[in-house]
Structure formats: C-alpha cells, structure tokens
Amino acid sequence: MKDNLRGVLEMTAAMVISGTIGWLVVLSGRPASEVVFWRCLFGAATLLPVCAAMGHFKPGQITLRQLFLAILGGIAIVANWLLLFAAYPRASISIATAVYNTQPFMLVGLGALFLRERLTWAKLGWLLLSFAGVLLIVQGRPDMGSEGDHYLAGVLLALGAAFFYAMAALITKALKSVPPHLIALVQVLVGVVMLAPFALHGAADAVSPAAWGYLATLGVVHTGVMYILLYGAIQRLPTHLTGALSFIYPVVAFLVDALAFGHRLHLVQFIGAAAILLAAAGMLFGWRWRSRAAGEIGRTLR
Fold this sequence. Notes:
The protein is an all-alpha fold. Helices cover 79% and strands 0% of the residues. It contains 14 helices and no strands. The protein has helices spanning 2-19, 21-28, 32-53, 64-91, 93-100, 103-114, 121-139, 148-172, 180-201, 209-236, 239-245, 248-261, 267-285, 292-301.
C-alpha cells in the first residue's frame, strides 16, 4: 500500500513536471537545438551519479548490441525533442501537446509493420478517431497572432515528434533487461554529442541569466529528476494506473499554456484535442467499440 501511494505521488509529480516543459522552452527564447543540447548536458550531469550509485556501470549491465540499440533510441529521442520544441512557438503548447499524443497510434503502426503485432478493429477505430481529431485541429483557427503557415508547420512538427517518440519506444522494447536509468543516460549523452556543434556554434549569442536558469531547470528537473520519478513510479505501479496518471501531462500543459501565455483552444481545436486524448485512453485501456454495427462488421470479417 505504501509502495502504491509512493508510486502515485512519483507519477503525478513526473507528469506535472512534464506538463511544464513547453513553458520553460518558450521562456528560454533559445533555438530548439540549443535547448535540447543543454537539456541533455544538464540531464546527463544529474543521471551520471544516480546510475553510479545504483551500480549500473558494472560489467554486464549492457551488451554492445544493446548499447547500439540504446544509441539508436537516443537519436530518435533527440529528434523527437527537437521537433516538439520547435512546434511549441508555432502552434502553441496546447496544440503541439494534443497532436503529440498521437504517438500511441504510431507505435501500434510500427509494431504491426516491424514486429507483426496484431492490429485489431478496436485499435483501428481509435486510430481513425485520433486522425479525425488531428484533422479538426488542422482546420482550427491559429491562436493569438500565429500565421496559418506557421500553425500548420507546428502541427506537422508535433506529428514528426510523435513519430520519433514511437520509434524510440519501439527500440526500447528490445532493451527490457537494461536498467531504465542507464538507457536514459545513454540517450542524453547521444544528444550532447549530436548537438554540440550546433549549440556551441551559437554560444557567441548572449544567453541571459534567466535563460540559463530555464535551461538548467529543463536539464536537472525536467530530465534528470523527472526520469528518476517516472521510472520509480513504473516499478511500483500497475500498468493501468501509470497509464491513467499519464493523462495529467496534457492537462497540465493546457493549463500552463492558458495561464502563462493566454492560449485557449477554440471549439474545433478543443473537440479535436478531446478526440485524440479519448482515442489514446481507449487504446491504452483496451476499450472496445460496443455498437451493434461494429459487432456485425466484426462477425462478417471473421
């Protein structure tokens, strides 16, 4: 019982922290490549002593093949962050977050393509609902001075971020025996190596003390601490409970966007975002379509 309570508190804290990432990214005012680089660098500095203390650097913790897969996953995660952070100022944090939640469906598609996982009619139904939600968001009016082209670019960037996150999740499935904190450390180190030339090239630009504070917080709190809380919760809680608590993340992101930047979803955008989140929940909890028509179609196809 105490483990469950601790897990709930850890998962809740991790999702609240995740929901404020976009706020700090926008406030930093730095290019996405710089933000991701410093996030990775400060995150690595936080995760290194944690992994050392947990004994993750002992021989045999990770094989060469697993290390290669972890590096590939790191490339996908870094691409995911770059695209998502670039989407925030273009489409708003709320819209980017809503579209980003199409990631479970991309993972299902990749699983069916590469792992030959079964694609059920229920999953297809939730996929179609999510796709309809994205179309509604695309049709919605850009918020507060955002130009139409920038808005559409933001939506496409968020879709790209979701795709690369799904790729990273697919790769991580092959790393079940590797400690999760070690995987996270490899991923952020990959980000440091990948983005150092771009981030350090722009180092001549003056970074304000406030921006340094935002960047350090993104690395230490929103990467290092968040991963520690998240993996601690995953180890303590059943899957359905971690899944349910994960929806705190988009709710917090919507609230932060409204309170900090005055971005509120228009009706069509709200319906689209709700459709995506409902579809994601249906996919996560295995909800089935119970209508008679769906049952008739299912019997006919069988």
